[in-house]
Each structure stands twice: as C-alpha cells, then as structure tokens.
Amino acid sequence: EPAPLSPSVGASLGVRSYYAREYDRAVGELLESLELNPDFSLAHFFLGQAYAAQGKLADAIRSLERAVELSGGSTETVAALGYGYAVAGKRSEAKAQLSTLLERAQKGYVSPSFIAQVRAGLGDRGEALACLERAVELRAADLAWVKLRPAFDALREEPRFIALTGRMGL
C-alpha cells in the first residue's frame, strides 16, 4: 500500500479509523503521518486519543502533552489531555486541565462539551451530562461529533445522553 501523499492525508485516514473505533489502524496511520511531519499537532492529538482508547496511557499522555505544546494550548488539546490524565488516574493533573478550561470559559467561549470530556474521564457522569445538556442549549458546533467521540462511550447508556442526542436529531 503506498505511503500517504502528505501528513494531512495520513492524519485524516487516522482520524477516520479512530472514529470507526479501529484504534490499531488509527495508531499506524497517525504514526506514518508523524514520520512525514513530527510536529503535526493534529496527528499527535488524535494519536494520543487513540492510545487512550487502547489503554496505552503513558503513550497517550506523551502524545497529548505534545499536541498541547504544538497547538499553543488549544482548548480541544487541553480537554483531551485532561481526559487522558483522568483515565490514567492522574486526577490532580486532570483537574488542573479542567481548571484551565473553566478559567477560559469565564473570559470567552469554551464549548461545554470540552469540559464534559474531562468530567467524563474523571467519572463525574452527572456533571459531564449537565455540560453536554448546556452544549445542546448553546448549539455548540462540536456537538455534531458527540456520538462519535470515544470519550463519551461511558455515557451512552445514560437516559440523559440518549435524550440529548435525540433532541439534537443525532
């Protein structure tokens, strides 16, 4: 199979595989993309999340820390890192990322779904669901991905989750 034409082509294959829950394949595609461009923040972002989904938590944290660094601390990378720390049992580090998101939300717009992601990782299901409900009220653009995001897999059976995705027509 030929190498991807560019880091972004390789990364988009990896993103597709990640959302299809094909984590081994996603990791391979994202690593290939990073061979072409080691500083590609988006590839580190999805690689870290794919590693987290595989339970490779040290690798996940390393990739997500790199994504935060390379993106200049973008909100979605901070949320993913907070989630990664949480599922790795690093609660104080996860709460530090959550604090960063909550501080930013005081000053400007932060999609509540990013806060929900960290809360879900910490096991705060009620808080995570409340954040997702708030995101629905605000018509947060990133909610289109809510059913696809593995971070919310633990919430799927919750009646409130089913209700909110129903309200959104997903």
Describe the structure.
- By secondary structure, this protein is mainly α.
- The chain is built from nine helices and no strands.
- It has helices at 7-19, 23-36, 41-54, 57-70, 75-87, 91-107, 112-121, 125-137, 159-167.
- The chain is globular, with a radius of gyration of 16 Å.
- The model has no long low-confidence stretch (mean pLDDT 91).
- What best-fitting shape do the alpha-carbon axes yield? globular
Number of helices: 9
Q: Indicate the low-confidence ranges by residue numbers.
A: none
Q: What integer is the average pLDDT?
A: 91
The string of secondary-structure elements, in order, is: HHHHHHHHH
| Count of individual beta strands | 0
- Estimate the strand proportion: under 5%
Radius of gyration equals 16 Å
How many strands, what sense, and barrel or not for the largest sheet?
none
Q: Can you give the helix content as a percent range?
A: 55-70%
Class based on secondary structure composition and strand pairing:
mainly alpha
The CA-CA distance between the termini, in Å, is 35 Å
State the main characteristics.
single chain, 170 residues, mainly alpha
Give the SSE layout.
Layout: H1 7-19, H2 23-36, H3 41-54, H4 57-70, H5 75-87, H6 91-107, H7 112-121, H8 125-137, H9 159-167
Helix pairs in contact: 1-2, 1-3, 2-3, 3-4, 3-5, 4-5, 5-6, 5-7, 6-7, 7-8, 8-9
Summarize it:
This protein has 170 residues and is mainly α. Helices cover 69% and strands 0% of the residues.
